[in-house]
Automatic annotation (TrEMBL):
It is found in: Chromosome; Cytoplasm; Nucleus. Residues 78-234 form the Condensin complex subunit 1 N-terminal domain. Regulatory subunit of the condensin complex, a complex required for conversion of interphase chromatin into mitotic-like condense chromosomes. The condensin complex probably introduces positive supercoils into relaxed DNA in the presence of type I topoisomerases and converts nicked DNA into positive knotted forms in the presence of type II topoisomerases. Keywords: Cell cycle, Cell division, Chromosome, Cytoplasm, DNA condensation, Mitosis, Nucleus, Phosphoprotein. Belongs to the CND1 (condensin subunit 1) family. InterPro entries: ARM-like (IPR011989), ARM-type_fold (IPR016024), CND1/NCAPD3 (IPR026971), Cnd1_C (IPR032682), Condensin_cplx_su1 (IPR007673), Condensin_cplx_su1_N (IPR024324). PANTHER family: CONDENSIN, CONDENSIN COMPLEX SUBUNIT 1. This is Condensin complex subunit 1. Residues 934-1094 form the Condensin complex subunit 1 C-terminal domain. The keyword Cell division applies. It comes from Cyprinus carpio (Common carp). Residues 482-508, 557-585, 815-838, 1180-1228 are annotated as: Disordered. One of its GO terms (biological process) is meiotic chromosome condensation. Residues 486-500, 1196-1205 have a biased composition (Acidic residues).
Amino acid sequence: MSNHMSWDFILPVCLGDLVKSGAVNQYVVQDVLSVKQLPSHINSFKAALRSQGPLCILEYFDTAYSVLQHCRTVDVAVKEDTLELLIQVVRGLSVSLPTLLLSGSLSAVDRKQQLNAVKMSVFLLCKLTETLESDSYRETIGRKKDKVAGKGLLQWDSERETILQCLTQLLQLDIRTLWSLSLVEEEFVSCVTCCCYKLLENPTISHVKSKSTRDAIIHVLGIMVKKYNHMLGACVKVIQLLQHFEQLASVCAAAVASWSSEYGVKAIVGEIMREIGQKSSEELAREGSGVKAFSSFLSELSTLVPETMIPNISVLLTHLEGEVQSCVLYRIASVLVRVLSGDKLDDSARASRDRFLDTLQEHIHDAHSHVRARVLQVYARIVNSKALPLCKYTEVMELTVGRLGDKSVHVCKSAIQLLAAFIAHNPYSCKLSSVDLTKPLEKEMAKLKEMRDSQKEQVPVITAADLWDAMKPELEMTVKAQLEPGSEEEDNEDEEETGGDEERSDRDTALQIAQKAVGLCMRAHSLFPESSFFSDLADLNAETLIKTLATLFKGPEQVTPEAVSSDAPPTPQKEGGGNEGGESELKKQEMLVQYLKDTESFALQVERSIAVINNMLYWKTTTVVQEAVQFCVTAFEFSVANSVCGVRKMLPLVWSTDVTIKDSVIQAYRRLYLNPHGDNTRAKAQTLVDNLSDLMIDASLGTVQCLEEIVSVFCPYAEREVVLSNLDTLCSVALGEKVAEDYLLARDTLITIANITDHVRVCVHILFQSDPHWQTFMEQAVRLIYFLAESPDQLCSRLLQRSAHLLLEQITEGGEPNQSQLQESGSQGSEEQGNDANDSCVEEELGLVGASAEDTEVEFIRKICETELLSGNMLSAFLPLLVKVCSSPGKYSHSQLTTAACLALSQYMMISPAVCKDNIRLLFTVLEKSPLPVVRANTIVALGDLTVRFPNILEPWTPNLYARLSDESASVRLTAIMVLTQLVLKDVMKVKGQVSEVAVLLLDPEPHIASLALNFFNELSAKDNAIYNLLPDIISRLSDPERGMKEEDFNTIMKQLFSYITKERQTESLVEKLCQRFRTAKTERQWADLAVSLSLLSVCERGFKKLQECWDCYSDKLTEPGVYQPLLSIAAKLRRRAKPQFKVLYLCTFGWKTAYCSVQDLVTVYASVLKVLDDSDLVTPRKSRSRPKPAITFSSDEEEEDDAVMAESETPKVTTPIARTRRTRLRH
């Protein structure tokens, strides 16, 4: 074997270099075998491996090399055999080398032999692996697998892992000693690492099934980085992989994290970060997908090893204005959450934390909306992890509340999420009510003031002992100086001095005083040596002199404290201790007051945000509405003041057509009211009942209906047995002796019984006592009679007879009641009968229709309703009375009587179309002229039901319904918008230009009405082209001079309505329609409104071309600034995103034409003025006579005229029958 060691194996750059003659003693392949020769030589290779071991590679290198050369044409079995032989060679070297390397007796020839074997085997194994990997990938992409190749490729996934394990075993050994000076050549390192990087380029390497292979590759590369000086090469290669393979971001992050933590090469993180940080924004912009890969890589890395990124994160802060902003922000968040959090940070860590938080705070107002949203999301993550310092809460909270008004929907959504996180993880209290915090704060502030005042009254006492301890060091130095030889004469000379420098410093002055004191003490001792004060100076030295001076300065009471009597005042030391305790209590009180102040400030900011977020409940963006609902729930759970307003305001969303919004509201109420707390079942049930009862307090009719819808989802009607099992309890409690105490409970009990069964016998108690809820109770009682009894007419007749008998007894005993009371009694009875007849018949009819009954049955029921039900029986007798009461408001002025009569009349009209036609004019007269808001509101609801029942009869009266949207009463406007919303959205009523009245309600002073109007347009926008078709008519009506709408209000309404126009085709068509309306517009204000409307459209290039085509429509109006400026703004907005050719051909031309036209018109006007001024016969123009406006009067003053019905000529005529359509066509 030694004969072979006259050469060295040099790893080639290219595979073909091995067949070329190179340098002296360089190995060259002598014989490249043909494909036919390969099987026999492979068999010889196997035999040699068994007999000679791994060093046989030195002899059979050419055989394996030939397989590489013919890899595309050779049989798969040959490649598999070669791969298996190379694996065995590498394993053999891994087993034999440790003993040789540890022996230390390896000769130079043997070292070269082992080195050549290592290089040859690793080179062949890596190259063959790369070739097989390429073949595997190529066959997968081309989908051209043959049967043989397919069999081999199916095993390749497991073979890859085996190869990597072999390389790991070999490279873990200290084979560097085989090289001269342990310097491993770069070509060897590149051979191994290139093979690993080639395997990483496989598209499936990031899949879960490839985890073991992925980990093995990372392990091999980690060894190369740590032992073979591959760190810089790895940095460059990671950057290249990220630029070309976006899917490798997570893999590379895991690799770098492993090399940093498991292999201890922490510097590689900084190197890669610097490489990315040095890239300019232009480079990142050109790379495209590479930017996403960098962002994902850095984000993953910050999650895995955040602590190693802190020293190098500054190099990435420059990219906060570039393409990787979100990534940098995410990294900052990871560092703050996982490293720079907690109370045990040192000063350096705190400074870094504050610097990062300041950086985040600066970008809350970033110019890019996605960055603003990302910053808020980062803050939410920090708050959820409880890593935000308490000192930053107020500041960040205030900035977040400000972002609720951001123009970006994503920013608003992120702001709501952050505010909810603030509330859920607040460090202050579980109840955030500023009202509840006011009194405790005032109490503690008063207590703090008293403590501060008491501290000011105490004069600080400085004891003699404290002064002595302060002076002692200086005195010791002075005493030592005085006791030195020759110092006495100097002291005497100093004492005789009468002057001195007046500007001597305090220290010098103190030193002079000390010297004089020591000199005086020594002179006094010399004059009075027998005095007891100088008894310690028998032996004069520094220590005894200091002791004597201390006795003279402190006094005897300090030297012998035990001699002080027990009734003496406290010593200075004890007073000092009391002061320290007082200061400690004062600091605690100051901290408590500051805590309460911060809590109150936090609660006030939360309350301020609630008012804004409540208005977002009716936005058209589903995700924002969902976040607003969740925020309201969180705020309510923490008892934030006014949070119940949001909980109630979300109730109407249960009728939303968006399933996700409806589900969010239902789940919110389930979480708030159906999650009872208690130790046992009874306690939980009681809590549940209390929650639902609190919800019903002061609930309006609309709120009750919404709650019924929610409860119907929670508890389906199928669970009737629960009520049936408790029927006796219901009757005894609600319909027993105490029925007069709560008629609402009795009424709802009757409704419940009617809903659960058809065969229940119950007693009805008739109590004629004054109670506001008695009327509704009796209504439901009579309804239950009609629902259950076999002959309800006869039973009700007996009830009326009994009532009449009681009335006669009252007349006999107490005198005749007044006319209003008598009419009220009659109207109540008629109302009950009307309700009963309507309910029984209409419900039957609707039930039959819903069940698809036969047409004959439907016709039979209709005939009964129209001919028999209201003729010849008890119900027919009350109809004239109802008409009389409703048509004579001056005579019958009692409010409850009028209300009951109108409702009863509407119920009669619901039964028969003939009755409806005869009395519809009367009902609309009541709607327009009744002075009672409750009557007008009830009439609107009744007319809504009639519109559903008889749409063709009500169609001519549609403008009268829309007119109530401008009613002076807020309750009437609220009822009108709710009724019209249901009629329009359910396609019962055609949407016409009168919908402009709904648009005006967007600015209603009542927030609830404005939110319902906004919800109306949000729902209407879901219908195809509905708002698009209505916009021109709405603009014409709102810009009508007779309406007199303010310009600011018009702009606000139009801005909201044009936000629903998102399709390019609709925009283009609207541009043409609005331009054409310039021709018919007569006033400058109408021109300006049309121009503003055009500027609110998101005009594209096609729409702008259409604007230029309609130049003649508005060119003569350009002298008006209200027209000229909005049209210029259209071009300005389009110029930002238009193509260069379009800018030159259209935008520049348009700007020149508008400017020229406006100047020309001004010149024309100026010339006409000059011509008029030159005329000699100037005549003062006459004033135009103002025409008197006709006074608007109402029929009857309610007290003088009994008949207040519209004239026949005022009755609108039916123009076209209503056709029920679900879809509106796009009109051009």
